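Supplementary Methods. Inverse-folding protocol.

Structures were first reduced to a discrete structure-token string of length 418. This string, shown here, constituted the complete conditioning input.
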């Protein structure tokens, strides 16, 4: 290799390191601001529960904002997946502020939603601006989108390894450039440490008792993991069902979250609790030590599917954590495994099934709960992945690989059930 080629490679490497640093810092800072703001609006809502009656107004505001200024970005995470698979044009930067304020309004007034979608969309929109700045071609633009997803996910959950893997795995069967792999990890860690620099804290969970793996524990893990997969399927299909129903019955998009907000506010009033709205983090934390009611996970699926289907903004992942943790916690009443282990397994396994990302979810479990639980987490994520059907929370995600081939062989996709 001559000096000229060495110099060229060095310059390209420095350029990509600079891109990773910039994306990591900008996306990490955006996530830090989002997490602080989200915590504030959540606390303010819980101290002023009358705000829930303004949910229709908040929904109308979100709907009008996207209808008149955000139609090009209304697809959210699905737009990122579409642009990766079939690049057309740079994702507008306005996606970031629109989804940020839309999510904050959703949580302020009592919608049930998460935060991953917001962070990933902000990350994707911010990152894609560097396509124009550095004049990157289509192949390199795909790498940029991966970096944005990686930075957003890693920074909002405090899991850099899982963030990098999630960005790669959610797009895994769409021909990823090998150079994207180390760059994804580098960007994830920069974004993660940026949030740490801003002194923004993430939630912590603990699994104090890990039993030895045996035929008896494996006997219980298998059916429990299937239930996690079925819960993931129900969550995904519920969200799509409500979205289809609202779009079919209400032709003017801004009215969908307005009508949905009215129905949600009434439902919250009559149910008499706010545990099923917002992120639900206190309920998730409690699930690791106290058994939940058997219906908690069902109600969270219903509230979240309805909220997002009506057109409110936010993510699906934290509600998926809620569904999995509360389901695992409730199962501890009949399954002879530690409650925290069951809650932790459900926490990531339902997420695995709904996003078709068992590897990232296994690593996330080990980052959150400790490597000692890795075998249990890995088995749960893998089985939930296979038993959750072919339809996930992201409509435009291309699902191939082991699950796709299994369902093709069994002929299940032909009958429309899976």
């Amino acid at each position: 290799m001559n000096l000229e080629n060495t110099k060229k490679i060095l310059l390209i490497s420095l350029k990509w390191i600079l891109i990773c640093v910039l994306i990591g810092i900008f996306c990490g800072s955006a996530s830090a601001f989002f997490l602080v703001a989200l915590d504030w609006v959540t606390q303010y809502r819980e101290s002023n529960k009358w705000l829930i009656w303004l949910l229709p107004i908040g929904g109308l505001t979100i709907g009008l904002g996207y209808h008149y200024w955000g139609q090009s970005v209304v697809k959210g995470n699905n737009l990122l997946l579409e642009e990766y698979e079939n690049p057309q044009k740079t994702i507008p930067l306005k996606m970031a502020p629109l989804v940020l304020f839309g999510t904050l309004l959703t949580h302020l007034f009592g919608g049930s939603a998460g935060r991953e979608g917001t962070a990933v969309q902000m990350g994707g929109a911010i990152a894609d601006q560097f396509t124009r700045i550095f004049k990157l071609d289509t192949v390199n633009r795909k790498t940029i989108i991966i970096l944005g997803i990686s930075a957003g996910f890693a920074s909002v959950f405090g899991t850099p390894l899982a963030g990098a893997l999630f960005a790669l795995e959610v797009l895994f069967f769409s021909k990823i450039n090998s150079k994207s792999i180390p760059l994804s990890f580098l960007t994830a860690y920069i974004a993660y440490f940026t949030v740490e620099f801003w002194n923004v804290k993430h939630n912590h969970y603990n699994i104090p008792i890990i039993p030895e793996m045996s035929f008896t524990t494996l006997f219980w893990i298998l059916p429990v993991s299937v239930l996690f997969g079925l819960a993931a399927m129900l969550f995904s299909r519920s969200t799509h069902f409500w979205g289809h129903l609202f779009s079919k019955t209400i032709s003017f998009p801004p009215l969908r979250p307005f009508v949905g907000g009215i129905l949600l506010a009434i439902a919250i009033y009559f149910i008499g609790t706010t545990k099923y709205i917002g992120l639900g983090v206190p309920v998730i934390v409690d699930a690791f030590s106290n058994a939940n009611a058997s219906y908690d996970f069902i109600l969270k699926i219903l509230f979240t599917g309805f909220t997002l289907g009506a057109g409110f903004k936010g993510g699906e992942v934290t509600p998926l954590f809620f569904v999995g943790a509360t389901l695992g916690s409730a199962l501890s009443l009949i399954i002879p495994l530690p409650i925290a282990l069951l809650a932790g397994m459900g926490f990531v396994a339902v997420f695995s099934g709904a996003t078709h990302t068992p590897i990232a979810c296994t690593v996330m479990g080990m980052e959150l709960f400790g490597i000692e639980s890795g075998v249990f987490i890995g088995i749960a994520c893998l089985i939930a992945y296979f038993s959750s059907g072919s339809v996930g929370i992201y409509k435009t995600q291309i699902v191939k690989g082991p699950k796709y081939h299994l369902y093709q062989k069994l002929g299940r996709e032909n009958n429309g059930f899976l």
